[in-house]
Amino acid sequence: MLTIALEDPTSADAQALMDELSATLANITGDSGRASFDLDDVRVPRACFVVARDAGKQAVGCGAFRPLQDEIAEVKRMYSRPGTCGVGSAILAYLEAAAADFGYRTLWLETRRVNARAVAFYQRHGYRRIPNFGKYAGSAKAVCFEKHLQSVVRV
C-alpha cells in the first residue's frame, strides 16, 4: 500500500529523495536542478511538498508545487525511486488533486528536453507543450508543459 502525505521538505527522508533526484538529473542532463528549487517556495500558502511511502513506511518518492499566478502552480521536484512502479503517477495525481483543491486551474512544469523519460511521463499524463516560461524562456535545453485541472478526474 502506498501513502502520500504532506511533509516538511527539510525532513531527512525528503532531503534524501531530493539528493537522489539531483544526482539522477545531473547524470541525465548535466544539471542537478537544485538552482531551480527553493524550499521556501513550497512553504507558502497554496503550496505543498509531499512524500510517498510504501507499505513498510519507506520513503519512495516526492513531489511539490508552488504558486506562480493566481490560477497557476508549478510542479517541482518530482521523483520516484527506481523499481517503484506507479509511484510517480500516484504522486502526480495527488499533486493535481491538491492543486485543484487550492483553487488552481492549471499546472505548469519544466523538464530538460534530453530527459526523454520525464517528457514521455508528463505527456502520458495529459500534459501538453507550452512556450517556455519564466527563467526557461529562450532555453533550448528546457521544455515546458501544462495541464488544465478541470480535466482531472476526482474519485
Features of this protein?
155 residues, alpha+beta, Aminopeptidase, 7-stranded mixed β-sheet, 3 helices, 7 strands
CATH architecture: 3-Layer(aba) Sandwich
Estimated structural class: alpha+beta
Radius of gyration from the alpha-carbon trace, in angstroms: 14 Å
CATH class term: Alpha Beta
Runs in which pLDDT lies below 50 for 5 or more consecutive residues are none
Fourth-tier CATH superfamily name: Gcn5-related N-acetyltransferase (GNAT)
Q: What proportion strand?
A: 25-35%
Helix-strand topology string: EHEEEHEHEE
Residue-averaged pLDDT? 94
Under CATH, the topology can be stated as: Aminopeptidase
The coarse overall form would be globular
- Specify the helix fraction band: 25-40%
Strand order of the largest sheet: 1-2-3-4-5-7-6
Word description of this protein:
By secondary structure, the chain is of the alpha+beta class. The protein has a single domain (3-151), classed as Gcn5-related N-acetyltransferase (GNAT) (Aminopeptidase), CATH 3.40.630. It has three helices and seven strands; from the N terminus they run βαβββαβαββ. The protein has helices spanning 12-29, 87-101, 116-124, and strands spanning 3-6, 48-53, 59-69, 72-80, 106-112, 128-130, 142-148. It has a seven-stranded mixed sheet with strand order 1-2-3-4-5-7-6, sandwiched between helices. Strand 4, helix 2 and strand 5 form a beta-alpha-beta unit. The chain is globular, with a radius of gyration of 14 Å. The model has no long low-confidence stretch (mean pLDDT 94).
